[in-house]
Design a protein that fits this description.
Number of strands: 5
Largest sheet: 5 strands, antiparallel
Helix content: 10-25%
Strand order of the largest sheet: 1-5-4-3-2
Radius of gyration: 12 Å
Shape: globular
Distance between the termini: 25 Å
Structural class: alpha+beta
Strand content: 25-35%
């Protein structure tokens, strides 16, 4: 599910430890929301957010780790 991100204005976003520090691949995650894990591009904080269900979070991360680097 995608969102325009505006309904998450009060949450605290944290940058992923896998994000690069050069302004490239920057992903942010909002923690502490019941049942969902929003993910967004830190370069576009007002842009859309990908909304994952909490049970989908683990498989999502596993798939990212298993994907070949680009």
């Amino acid at each position: 599910m995608a969102s325009n991100g505006t309904e998450f204005g009060a949450v605290i976003w944290r940058k992923s430890s896998y994000s690069t520090g050069d302004g490239g691949n920057c992903v942010e995650v909002a923690d502490g929301l019941d049942g969902i894990v929003p993910v967004r591009d830190s370069k576009r904080p007002g842009g859309p957010a990908l909304i994952l269900s909490a049970p989908a979070w683990g498989p999502f991360i596993a798939a990212l780790k298993a994907a070949p680097a680009r």
